[in-house]
Amino acid sequence: MSQSRSGSGITDRGVTSIPDSTEIREGDSLLELNKRIEILSSEISELKTAFEELSRLKEFLPLNIRVVEVRETTVEEAKREILEYCDKHKEIFYPDDVADELGLDLKTTVEATEELMKEGKLEEVK
Description:
The protein is mainly alpha-helical. It folds into 2 domains: 51 residues; 44 residues. 52% of the residues lie in helices and 6% in strands. It has 4 helices and 2 strands; from the N terminus they run ββαααα. A two-stranded antiparallel sheet has the order 1-2. A hairpin with a 2-residue loop joins β1 and β2. It is rod-shaped, with a radius of gyration of 28 Å.
């Protein structure tokens, strides 16, 4: 990224400086103003193209982002909550989904799930 005294603009490559030649100063001739307008029009056109490209790309990005507040629990507490979850949902689940749903730490959830499988209370689906 570069910086300048005059400010910054956004392009498809990130932030870039806006050249001092785009500043309008008192006493500028019509020719100088037209040149600056041409430069700014070109930059606006580039920004519009970059924005359109980003708009096209966003449909390929995951938009279902959730923030999950994770609470501290013991493995034993997690095992109890996971079994309650299984009783209510009666479906195949993945530890990361259960961790998100219950607000559990993923590492704790995986450990609890593995212990429940060893105890024969859950089984792995292949």
